[in-house]
């Protein structure tokens, strides 16, 4: 369960990913031996690993690590029956199960916990059905988001949710975190595309939720309850999704501003013009600086902030014309029509994730605020960065009010590490508090996982949390499904 | 709880709305007297009624009535505190609460049950906030859908879900049933527009679910769980919704076909052209006949089926051009550009609800099937109508695969009533079974209420139903919130 006092208790290790391996898990108790044997008895040898290298790889996702635990084993399910066997075996032995897809999560939702096994669903990667007339697909959880999109594109269709990890992450993982992405303001988040789920419950039974049709209101919406529950209520083994139409046409606009405030005002101006872009990404000066450093570009010379907008569909050209006009009126330097550069910038933004999750002196967030608070919130972030003597860069899915601010520092020598990390985390905690005061949420799309439990109590009062704990108990009385995550 | 044997047990009374008043409820027990006094003690005199005329009016919504029960009292809450007082009093006395908005539901979700009170939320009708920059609104549950839309339209915004009852029904009622409407295929159903809820729980406590932002994934999606739960998990007293942009431009196309099959093929052809209409309504010959009879029009002379399509947004004209071409290629007679007649037809369709819910010899449904099954399903319906010697008309939100077939008969003399009703219901039950066999659902947008409980077990297997019952128990241990509905 969450420890709400953890804000002050954050340790250097927890932030830096230098967590000591939990040695206890390396010494195997006889009952664990029995358990692993029983687990393996229902699987092929290639479906279970116990070597330390594999256990280590599968012990964490891309989220900050508080304490590394090696799982008792890693198992790869290749069928629904495999998952049922694994869950039943774990249930009998009360062994926690951490399910994962590609492990690209950034909140620690797939971090191994003490004495657990890690259940990888990456081998269940078949697109079972893709019906262009129904505009639906049925997939196993391990299907990569981009692969489903490639298959759908052959029919002029797309699977809309597009997290930055879309080339690596799985639909199952997207479902577990209710993943967002760049185009959700227009096309919705994962929950809005999921029609039905096959779920292996904590007792090993298989439950089918939802409906194959676009609409359906029979009974409680168990599908929506499962989406975003981070593997704590059941193991998703099948996903029926609605597909949408690949846009007829796409127009891309890059607008440079001399300050962030004007760029954020541009977001609201596009809204006031009642144009709904497919993508509306806001990049601050810190981000432009990083992109220049990485790619040798000269973005910073052209402005202090960049607003990247894509319109799509049959109205894309007309919408782009309105957007250009509105942004120019607001003082932006706007790229010309069909700008290859603008498209390249969107690609850079879309694929910038790799460089963002890989630094010990960088703490990132996923706050969403009401759209009208964008300017005020970023101004607060800038003041925090100054006060805590850290650097800041901000990328926002501006159409959603979803910001990914990152506080960071250049790598410093060991002697000052502790101080640096304290300052980074003080800025981070303050950003969360200010975001919440503005009516925001601690996580727009990444999920709570393990890492954000320390803030969840700031957003959700105890009765809401208690209700969620009781739902968890109802679904998983023994508490074996990804304990200590999400709620 | 549902009685799955009810299919064969349907009585004449149940169908014809001639149900006898439950006399038991007219004789007031002393403990009921005490309860009503206590209920009234916290309310103004104008907030409670016990006269038989009022009790009768509030004893049912527009759904078929199985057995009429008069409530002990009708109370009108005017504040969240009122609702809390009412729920606490009912909780203390274990009196069931049937919450309702405008009572326009057609599944009996707001029918009074034995010994209940009816809690009307129609007086909680304030739009508390409408923020054009955030593109959100906060409303009390009694706000009429059309009034929220009127307020939003002043800012170039709209509240997207548009059930046929939109001029009468309340947002609270829309939330309770997860209402759909004409434009959901493009803009989503109620759930997709609801960001947060204030809910009075069964113990009288006030819970706030969700987030003020477009995106938010902290904890389980309690908001989605509440939406569509028909007042069985809590009483919704506040709703935060996302607004969308009023379309820049709307084009309307009417396409007449010589048979229903070709019209349904037109729906798929528009899909294949990857055009997403805002509205796509399919009307069969029976419906055209009815419209002609009501309005003196000559629709039947022009075709045996009508496909009504609206495209909207900046691409409306270009989309309409594609749609016209595709439909003409499929053999349709297509109206010219900017047809006033086509717009009039959409208005007729949109406001046709009044004539559909008001006949004792008419049984309507709300089945959704995968889009590709539209033709096959309607062919089956036609065969059923012939076999059971009843008449049929079908209107479909074709973009969603959501059909409203109606089996009906001309009014017959009393001697043959029983046989007529048996035939109508046999056709109805068969239509449900065939719809389910095609991968459909028993309710696309109306809700299960009380009336459709008899079919729920055909769609949802026992473990799914049992899980829902346990969720219900968790939220409402004493079972006072709209018992015998929804699940």
TrEMBL record, chains A, B:
Keyword Flavoprotein: yes
Superkingdom to which the source organism belongs: Bacteria
Pfam families reported for this sequence: FAD-oxidase_C (PF02913), FAD_binding_4 (PF01565)
Tagged with keyword Oxidoreductase: yes
Keywords: FAD, Flavoprotein, Oxidoreductase
Cofactor section: FAD
GO molecular function: FAD binding; oxidoreductase activity
Protein name: FAD-binding protein
Species whose genome carries this gene: Paenarthrobacter ureafaciens
